[in-house]
Design goal:
Number of helices: 6
Strand order of the largest sheet: 1-4
Structural class: alpha+beta
Order of helices and strands: EHEHEHHHHEEE
Number of strands: 6
Strand content: 5-15%
Largest sheet: 2 strands, antiparallel
Oligomer: single chain
Amino acid sequence: MRGASAPTGLMVAPGINGFVPELNARLPYDPEGAKKLLADAGYPSGFEVTMNCPNDRYVNDGEICQAVTAMLARVGIKVNLLAETKATYFPKILSRNTSFYMLGWTPATYDSHNPLYALLATPGEGGQGQFNLGAYSNAKVDELTGRVASETDKAKRDAMIREAFKIHQDDIGHIPLHQQALAWGMKKNVDLVQMPDNFNYLRYIVVK
């Protein structure tokens, strides 16, 4: 990423309400530990899996998936990488026709309830867990997600968000990779406010 991203341990980035700095640390790089976990799970020689990946949606998405493939090969997991255009990729994964995939997410609300509801909650009615394509499910996370939606006391709400993220992290419900940086170019006589959702609004742009 040439320095234009930050490794992450959380499903949200700084700037999102509910971000927990102390939980934003990745698990240590430990190939031998990974091999032991595979053996304990009954796969001492690893296994084979297909990974679906877009190659025209995120910055360096195809290259990121190639790097993941190479790293997993070191512990005996053979990944058959299927990188394809987003036009065919998203219909495939959204129909849950995938075993292993990469997805990016920006909470349009700037609030942690958005990813809790869409990515971490058990798939259900009303769009709950719509993008939880691996069907991760934890009843306590579901309960906390529902309570976060209606809690008005900020301290209590933030504590529930933290608890939900901690449970999900301990479960390794997903594997967060990185927070993609935003990059815009402009002439020297242009000032603008860069929004965290990667949109630019004319009311925040000044041409000198």
